[in-house]
Amino acid sequence: MLFLGAIKEHTFDELPTNINRYFLRVIDMDAIYTDDTAHVYTKMGHVVIVGFINVPRPKEWVGTILHVKHGNIVSPKYTLPLNFGEYLKDRARNCEGFYNKISQKQAIKIDTDYRKAPLRAMNSETWKAMQYDFDMFGEKAFIPSDKAKK
Fold first, then answer.
1. How many Å is the Cα radius of gyration of the chain?
2. Contact, 55 vs 62, CB < 8 A?
3. β-strands 47-54, 66-67: how paired?
4. Residue 90: how many CB atoms within 10 A of its CB?
5. Which residues contact 46 (CB under 8 A, 6 or more apart)?
6. Could you report the per-residue pLDDT of 63-118, keeping only the tens digit for each?
7. Where are the alpha helices (DSSP H) in 3-137?
8. How far apart are CA 25 and CA 144, in angstroms?
9. Contact 142, 18 (CB under 8 A)
10. Has this prediction a pTM greater than 0.90?
11. What is the separation of C-alpha 26 from the centre of its chain, rounded to a whole number of angstroms?
């Protein structure tokens, strides 16, 4: 079990511009397998649960064990395999593709809702996640990636 928080600064190459919206707001699930590993990935807002079917190098997953009998999480600090970080970035990029495909009609509905209750919107967890992304990436965080390259 992992708990995700906002990223305020980073040294990663090509971090997705929606990383905080993905980490803090998105619900996601996946089943992953390769020749030597298999696990189920479930993300519910800030919480990620990885259920291992087979893991060849368990020592790469330090501090992530949830002790079911005691209900304790051993450590608030984690060590994860590097490829899992790449996997999280890929999941965020995949989600960004969905943002870019929101219809104009849906975008107008979202804008209308924000304008109806701006204080509620500004105090929402979604707004906070958007602000974290804006602080790191500026307007690029909200320009569809296919338009940003032109």
1. 17
2. no
3. unpaired
4. 12
5. 3, 4, 5, 23, 24
6. 887 766 776 665 667 888 888 989 999 999 999 888 778 899 998 998 899 899 99
7. 19-25, 82-100, 104-116, 118-122, 125-137
8. 19
9. no
10. no
11. 6
